[in-house]
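Please fill in the sequence for the structure shown.

STRUCTURE ENCODING:
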């Protein structure tokens, strides 16, 4: 079976190229100071650093191109893990799929590109993914980056498993904070996690996936709240007080879904959102004909997409005090022209193909029909 290998990328490949006696003493200090900065930030505040990074990049590329296997593994923690995975015969993984996960920093981007260019000569498929704003510069950026990474990994996991890949997390390289998170995430998404500890004689250490089971009954108690949080809602502390602390995070006095809440929700949302019954979202009412349309849906993912859209509509409608204009920005909300109901009927999009017709009544949004454009329009205008 082919492998889907996710490797975290740090900066060791660059810092390992420092020459203690030949290089200026402040190079190491400058690299440490700028490890969490983007290329733009470095150019603005440390104009001497780009030339240092370019020199170290050239050295690293030369080391990898001319070095033997041992020298390559000593130069790069990431490659140490990948080479060890294949017992130093990387060509054996020619048909495997590799992803390099890097931070939104200049040093991380440079390191990932060097490794990608080097491995391209040995494996067919290797790509770099940079989660949005992923950096250990501060908690806010780190949290947003991990959120994006979890969402990305969730989608890639489903695709890789569907295609029959075994999933490996190579956590030899990368910042410690990211490695820690990836270790936990790997308990959900990786078949095996691999490490190689420091030392020339170190062997590959493989940690199998733990048999983790989600307590669906405990999560079900909060299914509506988690669906709203996942859609972007924020709640007061009192509204979220009954939810397990690990599932939520406080930002500016409001409660949002945490990294781990996102991870758990991604694992179980299909079970809840594709249920036989519609979830009871705030400010949303379902007419009988809408419930009948829902029961006709045969594709699980269509049900999930619909309920995710309803969660988004619900919290935005409530936060805007019933002002439907805010919905037009996210779900293309607009009135139906020529509606049979003389008081007027609106509709909004669920993805590209499907529509929901609705009507505001006494401060609540009553949903009438769901289906294709032609179906819903036919029900409301003809």
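FILLED IN BY: designer on duty
SEQUENCE:
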């Amino acid at each position: 079976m082919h492998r889907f290998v996710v490797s975290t990328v740090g900066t060791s490949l660059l810092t390992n190229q420092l020459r203690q006696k030949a290089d200026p003493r402040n190079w190491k200090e400058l690299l440490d100071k700028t490890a969490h900065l983007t290329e733009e930030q470095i150019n603005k505040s440390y104009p001497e650093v780009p030339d240092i990074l370019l020199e170290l990049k050239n050295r690293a590329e030369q080391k990898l191109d001319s070095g033997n296997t041992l020298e390559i593994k000593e130069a790069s923690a990431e490659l140490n893990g990948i080479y060890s995975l294949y017992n130093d015969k990387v060509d054996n993984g020619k048909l495997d799929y590799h992803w390099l996960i890097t931070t939104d920093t200049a040093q991380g981007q440079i390191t990932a590109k060097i490794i990608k260019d080097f491995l391209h000569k040995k494996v067919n498929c290797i790509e770099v993914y940079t989660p949005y704003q992923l950096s250990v510069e501060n908690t806010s950026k780190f949290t947003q980056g991990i959120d994006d990474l979890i969402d990305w990994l969730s989608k890639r996991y489903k695709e890789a498993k569907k295609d029959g890949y075994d999933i490996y997390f190579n956590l030899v390289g990368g910042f410690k904070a990211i490695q820690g998170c990836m270790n936990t995430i790997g308990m959900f998404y990786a078949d095996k996690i691999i490490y190689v500890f420091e030392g020339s004689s170190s062997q590959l250490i493989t940690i199998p996936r733990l048999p983790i089971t989600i307590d669906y009954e405990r999560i079900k108690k909060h299914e509506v709240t988690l669906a709203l949080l996942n859609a972007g809602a924020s709640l007061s502390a009192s509204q979220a007080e009954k939810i397990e602390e690990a599932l939520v995070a406080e930002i500016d006095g409001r409660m949002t879904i945490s990294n781990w809440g996102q991870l758990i929700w991604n694992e179980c949302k299909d079970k809840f959102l594709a249920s036989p019954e519609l979830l009871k979202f705030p400010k949303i009412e379902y007419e009988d004909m809408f419930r009948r349309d829902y029961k006709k849906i045969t594709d699980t993912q269509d049900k999930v997409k619909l309920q995710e859209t309803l969660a988004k509509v619900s919290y935005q409608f409530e936060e805007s005090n019933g002002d439907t204009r805010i919905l037009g920005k996210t779900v293309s909300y607009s009135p139906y022209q020529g509606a049979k109901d003389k008081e007027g009927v609106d509709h909004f999009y669920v993805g590209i193909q499907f529509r929901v017709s609705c009507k505001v009544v006494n401060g609540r949004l009553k949903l009438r029909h769901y289906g294709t454009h032609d179906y819903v329009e036919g029900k409301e205008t003809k």
